[in-house]
Design a protein that fits this description.
- This protein is an alpha+beta fold and 332 residues long.
- Helices cover 28% and strands 25% of the residues.
- The chain folds into three domains: 110 residues, Rossmann fold; 114 residues, 2-Layer Sandwich (D-amino Acid Aminotransferase, Chain A, domain 1); 68 residues, ATP-grasp fold, A domain (Dna Ligase, domain 1, 2-Layer Sandwich).
- The protein contains eight helices and 16 strands.
- A hairpin with a 4-residue loop joins strand 15 and strand 16.
- 30% of the residues are buried.
Length: 332
Amino acid sequence: MILCLSHTQDFYTIDIVQNAFRELGHDVYRLNTDDFSQELTFSYASQPDRSLSFTLHTRDRSFSSSDVSGVWYRKLWGVKPPPELDPQFQSIFYQEYTTMRDLFFDALRHVPWMNPIAQDHWIGGNKALQLELARRNGLEIPESLFTNDPEQVRHFFYETCKGQMITKLHGTLSRSMSGDTPFFPTTQVAEQDLEQLTGLPYCPMIFQELVPKAYELRIVYVDGEFFAGKIDASSSARGRTDWRIASDIPLVWQAYTLPEDIAGALDRMMKEMGLLFGAIDVIRHTDGRYIFLEVNPQGEWGMLQRDLGYAIGQTIASKLSARIPTTQPLMN
């Protein structure tokens, strides 16, 4: 059985991948990670052969860790305490159910994952490391500063960025294919904004040089294969620094072929990161250079499959299937 880890609000991409697994002959099951709660029952216990087995009983299925042959790690959402639970017990509920969920994931370490969960979280949570590995593998990166020190920001603004600087959060507030859910967009910093940095010690941020854009690329990497989409928001008053807020002009994704040297550098970077999947953001500089921004190991790709006809979901299924030992039985 292929286990697909997602969440209750996920749609479209999860269905594409599940259907692709079925077409390859696999039994497949979707487990919403935010439902790992009192909504299901489980046990983690010794077997007669002294091995440990994690058994899960959901509303519609029962299976053990030994039944799982591969894991597609799509998304992870937080455990939801039931509304009727006394508030004083909600923190312990969250703590213990999150721990048990992690134990369940660990019980599946014997099968191939896309992506391995520890590697996914390590790389996704360290954009400084991403920039380091990108540069190490031959990619250009923007001048960057991660800080909570307003004085460092002012120096970086004038001395390094020459007055052309953007800021963004290290993490994301929300995720969607269209970018229309609440989030903190990449924002250009003007000189007068430097007087508004008093709150920075309470919320460290990333500051980078503003790269002049010809256009932006969302590049989906699936175990050595690339699916690239081009989007040009340069004519948008709102979306020049972040295409997701370009509501003042129509935006159209265009198919894009990466130069061999850029694709090779990205492939080396992803392999060093230990990721089989990632949504990579790159800027094409107005002078022609490609500037790496970041990779999101759980990034969105549905809009590229929908608008450009890319077989991303099918490739995810076939690539993960190819990593499953042939001794694993397929669905009858």
